[in-house]
Design goal:
With 230 residues, the protein is α/β, with parallel strands linked by helices. It has one domain (2-217): P-loop containing nucleotide triphosphate hydrolases (Rossmann fold), CATH 3.40.50.300. It contains eight helices and nine strands. The protein has helices spanning 47-55, 77-87, 103-112, 119-128, 144-156, 174-190, 202-205, 214-217, and strands at residues 2-14, 20-32, 36-40, 62-67, 70-71, 88-91, 162-166, 194-199, 210-213. Strands 6-7-8-3-9 form a five-stranded parallel sheet, with helices on both faces. Strands 2-1-4-5 form a four-stranded antiparallel sheet. A hairpin with a 2-residue loop joins strand 4 (62-67) and strand 5.
């Protein structure tokens, strides 16, 4: 059964001269509950834009995104935020951790936007990711790999049905990248969460049984290449 359904999704960005450059034009895309799919695309192909549209962070120009039967973009902004917090986990490329808060606090803050903070579950996630001795460390006191694991714990803290991962290994070396991907896939499987990961890393793609190229999904992919937009 499809957990994620996309139909006729388009998004463009307006240039200073008023012209609109198409970024995404996705006629159809779906992801089954519990599935794990890697979507390949070069820098500038619209990968991050697609994930932002799925998560409801961006609003499409046209088309629809349904997650677990809910049309994301028909919700009001406040209801969309609440829906995202409860149903979608997002592992951002740059982690987006709050520098003034500890690892544990970053996860707990993410939980407050969903069902509510659960300190013991948050701790168990961080411990599962080998961060038991880093609970009280702030992001600036953690290695890049440790920050990535905190971001993963935060994404999984509300037990989402769908996890979106944007170039999650982009800041890691090859060994750490492999370990991080294994952790993401294993923990999504444990929580029965579907995973949609976007990347241009061939090593990351090789770990997935199901891979797709964004150029096969996005009809606008050849119309725009701008390295300021992932």
């Amino acid at each position: 059964m499809a957990l994620l359904e996309i139909l006729n999704l388009t998004k463009g960005f307006r240039s200073p001269d008023g012209s609109v450059t198409p970024i995404l034009d996705v006629p159809s895309f779906s992801l089954d509950a519990g599935a794990q799919v890697a979507l390949a695309g070069s820098s500038g192909s619209g990968k991050t834009t697609l994930l932002h549209l799925i998560a409801g962070i961006l609003t499409p120009d046209s088309g629809s995104v349904e997650v677990d039967g809910t049309s994301v973009h028909t919700l009001s902004e406040s209801k969309r935020d609440a829906f995202r917090a409860r149903n979608i986990g997002y592992v951002f490329q740059t982690f987006n951790l709050l520098g003034g808060f500890t690892a544990l606090e970053n996860v707990l803050l993410g939980m407050t936007f969903g069902p509510g903070a659960d300190r013991e579950f948050a701790k168990s996630l961080l411990e599962r990711l080998d961060l038991a001795d880093r609970l009280d460390h702030r992001p600036g006191q953690l290695s890049i790999g440790q920050q990535q694991r905190v971001a993963l714990a935060r994404a999984l803290a509300n037990r989402p049905r769908l996890v979106l991962a944007d170039e999650p290994t982009g800041n890691l070396d090859r060994k750490r990248s492999s370990e991080a991907l294994d952790m993401i896939r294993e923990m999504c499987a444990e929580q029965d969460a579907a995973l949609l990961l976007v990347t241009h890393d061939s090593d990351a793609l090789a770990k997935f049984d199901t891979t797709m190229d964004l150029t096969d999904v996005n009809r606008a992919s050849t119309a725009f290449v701008d390295r300021s937009v992932n």
